[in-house]
Amino acid sequence: MRGKQVSGKAMLVLCLASFFAGSLFSTTSRTWSSTSTSLDDDHDDDQPNEVHPFPVVSKYHIHNHLDDKGKSQGTAALVTQTNCNDDHKRKLVEGKSGVDIMGEVAKTHQAIKSLDNTISTLEMELAAARASNQRISTSSADYINPNRHKAFVVIGINTAFSSQKRRKSVRETWMPTGGELKRLEKEKGIVLRFVIGMSATPGGLLDRAIEAEEAEHNDFLRLNHVEGYHELSTKTRLYFSTAISIWDAEFYVKVDDDVHLNLGMLATTLARHRAKPRIYIGCMKSGPVLYQKGVKYHEPEYWKFGEQGNKYFRHATGQIYAISKDLAAYISTNLPILHRYANEDVSLGSWFIGLEVEHIDERSMCCATHPDCERMTQAGNVCVASFDWKCSGICNSVERMKDVHNLCGEGTGAVWNLDL
């Protein structure tokens, strides 16, 4: 080597080769150092972190980077793809969180709504229970009295303070008196009472006259009610409520004191329906609603029945009708809230119009007087009740009641021959 002189060109080539070899070794050393450090971080978390001149990437990134033969485009694409995947996952998480929140809000709203409905239902049930307890305490206490008298039918004869002569004509014809009245009640379960309230001046002359008549005949049912023509609907309510508190009967009848009645035929007719629930028996009608003021039977609440010229719903005529025990109990229980129209027969029909009630149109309860009831009696079809439609009762009943009884009566033995 000393003997030969190296040319400058050779020296230049040797220097360049050494430079490139050194650069290649330095680059390779740094790359493997980074890889080793990353692997050590994955396997030994307890080692202190070292400061590297280049960012540290995961093994997945290194693997893809090496497989891409060192191309910088692959590395950039890998980083971009990683960022996109992270963004997509973040959006999915955020979207799912939004859906979960809205779902929870909807569930909470539904729970609040359900709670409101439950509270409303409980409030209504509480109000109904309070109303029921109030009705029982104010109007039905007597009805649950276990000491009531058993009967087949209670017949209330509607009368007034001025009707003493009418009552006399009834006692002299179709109504038993004295011991016969008690016997009829005991043996046949048929109870008869004249129904009357109090005068506007309690303890006055009118009340004393009724008390004297009651002492003689013992056939009155006194109501806690002030008598008056425009108070007949109230009197009807109180009659049924009072009667069912005293007698436990199968039927309750209301009849006016100017109507002729055959007791045996009435009991026979009622007995045909004794097995049925909620029976309403009478001569059913549907008259016009009279809206003109000043006329008889004027209906102040005519507007409730529709346009002018309309008719009432079907109801039994007021001269006589019968109802079964469950309907009398319904009236007694709901006494404070039963609406009263001007006419008592319309009022009674309105109390049943919305119930499951069987309306029985019994035409034998509204026969005309002579000669109609006479012909039916001769044919063997005795009428239950007879009166004159034009008078809403027997015209001049005090004078004519005895004649109607002789012509249309069933005979004194009919009621005693009944087998109820």
UniProtKB/TrEMBL annotation:
Region ranges (Disordered): 30-51
Enzyme class: transferase
Pathways involved: Protein modification; protein glycosylation
Membrane topology: Single-pass type II membrane protein
Swiss-Prot/TrEMBL keywords: Glycosyltransferase, Golgi apparatus, Manganese, Membrane, Signal, Signal-anchor, Transferase, Transmembrane, Transmembrane helix
Required cofactor(s): Mn(2+)
InterPro entries: DUF4094 (IPR025298), Glyco_trans_31 (IPR002659)
Taxonomic path: Eukaryota, Viridiplantae, Streptophyta, Embryophyta, Tracheophyta
Species per Swiss-Prot/TrEMBL record: Rubus argutus (Southern blackberry)
Entry's transmembrane regions: none
Descriptive protein name: Hexosyltransferase
Record keyword Hydrolase present: no
Single GO MF annotation: galactosyltransferase activity
UniProt signal peptide: 1-26
Entry-linked PANTHER family: BETA-1,3-GALACTOSYLTRANSFERASE 8-RELATED, BETA-1,3-N-ACETYLGLUCOSAMINYLTRANSFERASE
